[in-house]
């Protein structure tokens, strides 16, 4: 049958001879199935994440250096190193340095194990870190030194730390890194500085 002067071709788009639509569907599903199996095997062999273990050093409240790699703690946001915040009474607080000291205290307790699953836009590994039985990411949020951030927040944490937390992020002020929280620090940039307190 012709429609508008064109005849129906019995060949597919690549010149293959068409057998029938159901056969085409079965072949396509077979190829998709093989790709899914290959992906599952590759995932199994490579593992879901890399793991680094060793002594770590804090860069700021949400980044650290471990085994020569700069890592960003996944699922949280802490004030930048030189960022200052305002407490509920209106006093200036050195919240960036305070958050870094809290991370340093956790890292000083011994060897750290970090699982890196993804990379951020600056090429840093996004890590879930533990020091012994302590979940470092969750501890920083729970103690008020950072806020849970993004869809990958540490397990058993909330968007804001509990009222009993004493860290600089425990008040109901703006989120670390938010516009207007510091005159010294612009929006988040890659950490390639190594400042000391």
Structure summary:
This protein is α+β, with helices and mostly antiparallel strands. It has helices at residues 21-46, 95-107, 136-142; strands at residues 2-3, 6-7, 50-54, 56-60, 63-66, 69-73, 76-77, 85-86, 92-93, 112-119, 125-131, 134-135, 147-148. 31% of the residues are buried.
Descriptive tags:
seven-stranded mixed β-sheet, alpha+beta, OB fold (Dihydrolipoamide Acetyltransferase, E2P), 2 domains, disordered C terminus, 197 residues, 23% helix, elongated
Q: Could you characterize what this model shows?
A:
With 197 residues, this protein is α+β, with helices and mostly antiparallel strands. The chain has three helices and 13 strands, in the order E-E-H-E-E-E-E-E-E-E-H-E-E-E-H-E. Strands 3, 4, 5, 6, 10, 11 and 12 form a seven-stranded mixed β-sheet that branches. Strands 1-2 form a two-stranded antiparallel ribbon. Strand 5 and strand 6 form a beta hairpin. It has two domains: 45 residues, no CATH class; 99 residues, OB fold (Dihydrolipoamide Acetyltransferase, E2P) (Beta Barrel), CATH 2.40.50.90. The radius of gyration is 25 Å and the shape is elongated. The N and C termini lie far apart (82 Å).
């Amino acid at each position: 049958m012709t429609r508008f002067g064109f005849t129906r071709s019995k060949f597919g788009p690549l010149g293959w001879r068409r057998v029938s639509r159901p056969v085409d569907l079965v072949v396509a599903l077979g190829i998709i199935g093989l790709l899914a199996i290959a992906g599952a095997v590759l995932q199994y062999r490579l593992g879901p994440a890399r793991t680094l273990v060793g002594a770590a050093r804090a860069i700021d409240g949400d980044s650290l250096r471990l085994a020569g790699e700069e890592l960003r703690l996944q699922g949280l946001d802490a004030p930048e190193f030189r960022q200052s915040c305002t407490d509920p009474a209106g006093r200036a607080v050195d919240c960036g340095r305070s958050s870094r000291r809290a991370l340093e205290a956790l890292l000083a307790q011994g060897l750290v194990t970090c699982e890196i699953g993804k990379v951020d836009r600056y090429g840093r590994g996004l890590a879930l870190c533990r020091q012994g039985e302590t979940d470092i990411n969750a501890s920083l949020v729970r103690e008020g030194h950072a806020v849970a951030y993004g869809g990958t927040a540490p397990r058993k944490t909330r968007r804001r730390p509990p009222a009993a937390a004493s860290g600089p992020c425990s008040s109901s002020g703006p989120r670390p890194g938010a516009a207007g929280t510091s005159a010294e620090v612009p929006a988040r940039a890659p950490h390639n500085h190594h400042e000391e307190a």
